[in-house]
Write a structure and sequence with these properties.
By secondary structure, the chain is of the alpha/beta class. The chain folds into two domains: about 5-90 and about 155-240, Rossmann fold; about 90-145, no CATH class. It is built from eleven helices and four strands, in the order αααβαβαααααβαβα. Strands 1-2-3-4 form a four-stranded parallel β-sheet, with helices on both faces. α4 (about 55-70) links the parallel β1 (about 50-55) and β2 (about 80-85).
Length: about 250
């Protein structure tokens, strides 16, 4: 297994200094380099390289797989995908939904967070504006991220990109996840891919966005204590990777 930190975490200042930075820049070159590295390892079968992505990494996984297939220098093709809590709702409206949710679980939050909800809603509308261009001031856009990033995301439909790949996929979702949700995100994956015999979709009712089991409404505070990922998710992913004939519990 090879895991890499995305470039926005490893080199935030350098990324911020590039106003034309996009989702592709954030993930694709590094993922393709990782696939090449794995394919050259003597203990790894280059025909059985699977790509797993969590959250926004799950959203972009189909784009990475398509780039690996289309680019001769991109390394070997991806055999299949594991998408964990992958976002499918447009990211700017997902942000609005999350702000609204946090207002419902924060004591006094409905009033205290309303200015933030109003601000992120106005910024999301700016992303959808047909007049959005590279010259749009970044302070008018969600999280102050420059327009090229949103222009790229605005034209990207992760489930449609995944459907175009015709590859085996395991899509897993926490039932208590408020960042990527069953109703707003998994429903889109299911609509695009649910009828494919090569796609398996699983919901883990007790799990949050990090696949930590719990109960009651999920909150950011749940993420803080060191915890283990739901062992059932790991067992099911391992069974899926072993191939047809292996039962998922």
């Amino acid at each position: 297994m090879l895991r890499f930190e995305k470039v926005t975490l490893a080199h935030p200042a350098e990324c911020a200094a590039r106003p034309a930075f996009t989702l592709t820049d954030e993930y694709v070159p590094q993922a393709l380099a990782g696939l090449r590295l794995l394919s050259e390892h003597p203990a790894i079968d280059p025909a059985r390289l699977y790509l797993a992505g969590h959250s926004l990494g799950g959203s972009v996984a189909p784009r990475i797989a398509a780039a690996a297939a289309a680019t001769a220098a991109g390394g070997p093709a991806v055999a299949g995908l594991i998408i964990l809590a992958g976002g499918a709702q447009p990211l700017h409206w997902s942000a609005v939904r999350q702000f609204r949710y946090l207002a419902t679980i924060t004591p006094g939050g409905a009033a205290a967070l309303q200015p933030a909800v109003d601000a992120i809603t106005a910024q999301a509308k700016a992303v959808d504006d047909p007049g959005l261009s590279a010259a749009t001031p970044q302070e008018t856009l969600p999280f102050g991220i420059p327009a090229p990033y949103w222009l790229d995301l605005r034209g990207y439909d992760p489930p449609a990109a995944a459907a175009a790949l015709s590859k085996p996929m395991l899509i897993v979702q926490g039932g208590r996840d408020y960042q990527a949700t069953v109703d707003d995100d998994l429903s889109r994956w299911d609509a695009a891919l649910g009828n494919s015999p090569d796609v398996t979709i699983r919901v883990y009712d007790a799990d949050n966005h990090l696949f930590f089991p719990g109960s009651g409404p999920s909150s950011p505070e749940e993420y803080e204590p060191a915890q283990h990922m739901d062992p059932q998710v790991i067992a099911d992913a391992a069974a899926w990777l072993r191939g047809p004939g292996t039962a998922l519990c």
